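Forum: Protein Structure Q&A
Topic: Joint prediction for protein chains with partners

I've read a bunch of threads here and the consensus seems to be that you should model interacting components together rather than docking separate models afterwards. I'd like to see that in practice. Below is the full input, 649 residues plus whatever partners are listed. Could one of the regulars post the assembled result?
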Amino acid sequence: MADIESVLREQRVFDPPAEAAGRARVGSMEEYERLRRRAQEDRDGFWAEIASELHWHEPFERVLEWNAPDAKWFVGGKTNIAYNCIDRHLSGARRDKPAIEWVGEPGDRRTLTYAELYAEVAKFSNALESLGIERGDRVAIYMPMVPEAAIAMLACARIGATHSVVFGGFSAEALADRIRDAGAKAVITADGGFRAGKVVPLKQNVDQAVAKAPVDHVVVLRRCENDIAWTAGRDSWWHELTGGASADHEAPALDSEHPLYILYTSGTTGKPKGILHTTGGYMVGTYYTTKLVFDMQDDDVYWCTADVGWVTGHSYVVYGPLANGATTLMYEGAPTYPEPDRLWKIVEDYKVSIFYTAPTAIRALHRAGDEWPKRRDLSSLRLLGTVGEPINPEAWMWYRETIGGGRCPIVDTWWQTETGAIMISPLPGATPTKPGSCTKPLPGIQADVVDRQGNSVGTDEGGYLVVREPWPSMLRTVYGDHERFEKTYFSEIPGFYFAGDSARRDADGYFWVMGRVDDVINISGHRLSTMEVESALVSHDKVVEAAVVGRPDEIKGQAIVGFVTPKKGLEPDEELARELMQHVVVQIGALARPAEIRFAEALPKTRSGKIMRRLLKDVAAGADSKGDTTTLEDGSVLDRLAAERGYEE
Ligand code: WTA
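Posted by a regular:
Agreed with the consensus. Here's the joint model:
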């Protein structure tokens, strides 16, 4: 393996392997430049050409209507994304090609060809309609990673119901909030899912959630054969609903701007935002980026390890790959179950050629030891991808050498729930890569690094990552709160989309994303707001005040540290720390469990009463507070906090 010190010192650049360049759609930087210029000079023409590769029930009249910050793409066009992901492939050789390859955690398997996927989606579309679900209704999906999760999404999309997938790791409380905010009419779930050898009690969580946020229907897939409670009239079994349903369903023509899905993500405040994506633009964006960034070919076996509960699962497990007629692999369980070679065994078994995962997984699998990947034949791999957080050069090099055998290009893809699709990324056959950089914006994407006034900053200067021009898969609003949409994304730096990340650009024009500039923390590539965790902590009756910060973590990227002021008279101890950690799990989900709780009589505040999180960050990281403390109300608080011992997970 290349010596990491020398890679960093020499700022090594890795050229795309000749083989990748030879077969790629974009095989050189000259070609990339040509595309980029074309998109810049004729934005509408560029996107119209890509859109025309897809099926439109009725053609669009105009490509874009832009009244900043409101965009309408492919105006007047009528289409159906499920039709484009399935029906479009039924007439040719793809009909009998696997659309979904699925592996359950206990080892069960299933293959669905495009023809079989069509039948399943048609049946479930008919089933939903038989329940009275109509165009425009919202439907929550709270499922394990099974084919039915994708089938449920595609069926909703097909009939024009707006889906809201909630990650199965979220708690009943978090699910209830999301059902309520979206006004969902139905929840689709399973009796459970398998994770690290255990059953995740999904239906039980749904029962608790809908007790608080009622829905008309709960559809339950039988997956684990475990005992569940049943509410007659409200609950129906998936297999009973679809048993008698027709395996044909005509995809209706939906407006290009028809709301496709809502996906909740964390922002600065405690309340998650329902990011809304619409049909036509999102379809074009995910189709285009999958084709270009993964250079998807008909013989590829493509595997993105994300859960469908996150945007990566929406865009790059379901919609993007299927719109391209690809074979997409889904795996239900934990990456290291029963042993740390589980993922590599799947790569071997299915001859996976494209593998896309998050830095946190790469670091964890690296730490598990090289013997695990070495036991498996990974020679089918031709391309590797990463997403979700900055990747450290050590992890990048291990990924390249040990997993990719030194022959696979790595695409480090920067994007967000809000952007809907990849924005900045190498093209595998063209872009020379540098470990840790997501390189250059895709053709059609006008990303920049600017100062507060919106002026581009100089080479290697830090600034705010923005997008200067609209793009098809951009979010359209925050569901039910258009003002928050405007304020969060289009007011910070007037005229531009504000991503909330800081970045710099080097002399070659390569982007280096540094991290969030807001109160969002990134735990294992999952977005959480510090305020969300704070709200959870203060909702506990033994807590007076809480402040939450992230501290660097070798595997997860960041870990949560909660500073807590307990009620007067309470003697804080390890037991209380555990109780509070568990409380956060109940309020939000296991992904938000603090790694450490530190008790404090008081938190450092400015004279105007604001908690100084910046100082707490230093304390949490064990660093001396170098920041400006002149506005601190009581300096001794900080010393006491630093001396205080924390309770670790
Ligand atoms: C971070 C995930 C560095 C970033 C698709 C962004 C990244 C947030 C990268 C969005 C990357 C994502 N390099 N940072 N390649 N990809 N991020 O909405 O901070 O879950 O703002 O979308 O993840 O997270 P989200």
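The CA atoms of residues 119 and 247 lie 5 Å apart.
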